[in-house]
Amino acid sequence: MPAFRTAxxxxxxxxxNVLLYVVGxxxxxxxxxxxVNLTSVATFSQAKPNVAVIxxxxxxxSEGLTDYLATRSTPVTLEDNTQALQDATxxxxxxxxxxxxxxxxxxxQAAVAGSSPAPVLDTVVNYSAFTGQYMDQxxxxxxxxxxxxxxxxxxxxxxxxxxQAATATDQQVPVEVxxxxxxxxxxxxxxxxxRWTAYPLTAGLMVLVAMVFSTFLSGEVRRRNxxxxxPPSRMSSQVAxxxxxxxxxxxxxxxxxxxxxxxxxxDLLQGEPGRFGILALAALIYALVPLAIGFLVAQTGMRSAxxxxxxxxxxxxxxxxxxxxxxDLSLMGDTVLKIAHATPTFWFSKATFAVQEGAPMSTFxxxxxxxxxxxxxxxxxxLMVGRLRTQTADAGGNLAAAPA
Amino acid sequence: xxxxxxxxxxxxxxxxxVLLWAIAFPLVLSTLIYAMLxxxxxAYAIDPxxxxxxxxxxxxxxxGLPEMITALSVEGVQADGTALLDITYVDSDxxxxxxxxxxDYVGFITVDASGEPAFHVDARYASSTTGTRASIVKIVxxxxxxxxxxxxxxxxxxxxxxxxxxxxxxxxTEVSYTQRTSVTANPVSDSLAYMYSSLAFSVVMMMxxxxxxxxxxxxxxxxxxxxxxxxxxxxxxxxxxxxxxxWTVGFGVQLIGYTYVKFAFGTSFGGKDxxxxxxLAVGVLAMTFTGAFVGSLPIASGAxxxxxxxxxxxxxxxxxxxxxxxxxxxxxxxENAPLFAxxxxxxxxxxxxxxxxxYDGYQQFGQAILALLALAGVFFVLSxxxxxxxxxxxx
Lengths: 404, 395
Fold this sequence. Notes:
The complex is a heterodimer of chains A (404) and B (395).
Chain A lengths: L1 H12 L1 H20 L15 E6 L4 H13 L1 E2 L6 H9 L5 E5 L3 H10 L7 E5 L3 H24 L5 H12 L5 E4 L9 H9 L1 H20 L1 H8 L5 H27 L6 H7 L1 H27 L4 H18 L12 H7 L3 H13 L4 H29 L8 H4 L3
Parallel strand pairs in A: 1-2, 1-3
Antiparallel strand pairs in A: 3-4
Helix pairs in contact in A: 1-11, 2-8, 2-9, 2-11, 3-6, 3-7, 6-7, 8-12, 8-16, 9-11, 9-13, 9-14, 11-13, 12-13, 13-16, 13-17, 16-17
Chain B lengths: L1 H13 L1 H22 L2 H4 L5 E6 L2 H5 L3 H8 L12 E6 L2 H10 L4 E5 L5 E6 L9 H26 L7 H8 L5 E3 L10 H14 L2 H9 L7 H7 L5 H30 L8 H23 L5 H17 L6 H13 L1 H6 L1 H14 L4 H26 L7
Parallel strand pairs in B: 1-2, 1-3
Antiparallel strand pairs in B: 3-4
Helix pairs in contact in B: 1-12, 2-9, 2-12, 9-12, 9-14, 9-17, 10-12, 10-13, 10-14, 12-13, 13-17, 13-18, 17-18
């Protein structure tokens, strides 16, 4: 199979592209997941965002509040200057900052006694309104407990009131963790990584397959091949088999990456081997799409630099539209979701979510069917474009033979 | 040199595939990011938490809890208020578990015979990483139970307490002691981080022009390069205008991209346009020299294109382009590997934009610009050393 061997040699000769796109972009997903830590779901763990208290009052009340917030958050120490506060907010290292103004303690007690309005604390929050709302609830819970104690017992010493309030706010309602079938967050990372594989597979396979077919279709090479004893159909078949071999290699490499502990795939394989297998199958089915796109791109006669550019545009565009990077389709608008339906990566993403959420297998197969249809349609378009292009001068077709 | 400069510009802008890659990709990417993430700030705004409540006899008999839950819910919130909860009522524990399995709820609430509420949280929201919404529900229930327990303890200590309606009203009226303030020059926005990252990505991609220009100069990469090598011009008189032309085209492309994101999407840069243009100019300069260095490497042309593309993606990962996890990874890498963050042009361009938007002064901005200038200097030296003298197919 001379054409098969030649095609493989071409791929091996372009090892930097294999390294950069398949290995490099695949490793990007590993790097991202290596920084994600998921806690056990056997017990409920209350959110403890980073919180800083800027105490300008230094009263017993402000110190009591600081101690209480430290038990309900991850305390961060910040200097009391504009620079430090802007740094913490701009870099999003401290999503909630409480600034206790001077005189807050005295004003609080006066308000409880009814002689002045209630003082307020300044709070600085990041973009996540939930974190801000949550910490507001925590802060107000403590201060209202102190208020209630002092309201009921106006003559009680402040230290005693703070102690009573701290004891009261230590009480918590019981929590039960309810396992919902098919939604095990412990495998969250593995599902994310399988969705991520669409990105390196799209970029890498597009570039390499387009390169292989382009080489065999380039003008002079094609003319020489046409005069060889190997029939064009067999030559094309051998080149196609080489590209399918490349697809299998890329797919296997993605599975290998999925088994790296950081991606959580090994846990999924050990805990739910069936789901791991189904996800691997979905990735293999999806890999046929960039194979088809690479074939189409080669038929257009695009230059190498343009092929690289297009591969990156398509892979990144598909990845963003399918929600791979956000992993939460609800953050996308309705219009974007409608556009995303026209991309094969979106349906691959839906197939992985179907596995993640325990949807029926018929749903999974339906989504994969759509992916296969995309691959078939793109391949058909590639065949048509190739047919038209063989009539151009570049390919040495009829136009090349026509008199000037 | 002037002729070489102008000719190089014309050559670069006539390479449709390079231009397409350099112009279309950033525009497409920023459009996608805006379409997907432009409403991120609204998405992160308060969206009522979906919660199930077992509305049985014990729940109805609990003093104050049904009223509190209703007041916080979509049905009961005041017109100018924000609903915290979106409640689905069921009549039994079994029905609540079934509802939890069928839908996307954080959990359900039950009340026992003693009047103590319990929170049954969906395991998907049980971890502190994914469970901020569940934590809000928990803290609301904790606050109710703490208040009820406190009032109960006060009543036991002083039974006459409940005979004073005014005092009871004072106890029951919750006071809000918090108000929002801002310490940054402009409001915090998460979607801006992604727009800045996409612009930084396009700056990094400006390597492409220098790569193409250098390939037209080297004798072993193109027939044109071989002819130009025979010309009676010193290397510096050939290289300098080529580099300058690459920078000019790259900066022009960035102006298009900046104008697009600023006016089409209303992306704010803190109103400091001259500083933004300086960032783009210095960023493109750094990437022009980087592209020249990559272009001078003795590897195949296709591989060089792959290097620039993948390098752009890799560096942009650590500038936070690829979603929330990437943002966290970028911050973690900056904290644990500050030298790498300093050497990452995508990160520094993003940091420069952040500094202009969030800070009043220019200190952080200046640091980012200096880092980019240092990078430009390093790759200027490297590319000069690589391109100074070459020997091809020497006998």
